[in-house]
Amino acid sequence: MRSPKAGLNWDAPLTGAPHFSLRELTRSDTARRYGLPNRPGPAALLRLVRLAREVLQPLRRRFGPLAVTSGFRSPELNWHVSLTRHSRHCRGEAADIKPLRGGVRTLDLAAFAYEHLPCHEIILYHPPQGWLHLSQRGLKRPGRRLMVQARGRKPAAVSPAELLRRYGGV
User: Fold this and answer.
1) CATH code, domain with 91
2) Are 145 and 127 in contact (CB under 8 A)?
């Protein structure tokens, strides 16, 4: 496979995920501000496209437009964002999103992803108006973790029923 920088149209809709582009999934104001590289290698690129097809596009189809607030992050960028050089974002296996359609809550996205999509980790940050972190791992059916991080607390595992009890029905 050629270098991910060569021969790719970063603005073209992805095959199987036509509402997303590589530019959108790698865009970072922090990387631009600090002049940090943020291009996935071939393996991370393939995982990022898989994430778009299997997770982001089904959510888009069900709930309407989504804002990808963070997708792929180079290790250098991830250090600036979270003080670690290792995360699913660095592997092309994670994205942080917010719904753009009024009336759609991140809670709705989390519950749907947990029940229907091949996600490994689903973290609802700062509910009910925060954002949603979704990640995958490997090609086999992942074990799922549903977590909530309320302001000032560490992420805590919750069941779908507990999520609904705390923040309302879907």
Assistant:
1) 3.30.1380.10
2) no
| Cβ burial, residue 41 (10 Å; 0-12/13-18/19+) | middle
Q: Which residues contact 146 (CB under 8 A, 6 or more apart)?
A: 110, 114, 122, 124, 157, 158, 159, 160, 163
Number of compact structural domains in the chain: 1
What CA–CA distance (Å, rounded) separates 132 from 149?
Answer: 10
Tens of pLDDT along 95-140?
999 999 999 999 989 999 999 999 999 999 998 779 999 999 876 6
Report DSSP letters for 65-103, one per residue.
-EEEEE----HHHHHHHHS-S-STTTTT-EEEEEE-STT
Q: Is 163 left (phi over 0), alpha (psi -120 to 50) or beta?
A: alpha
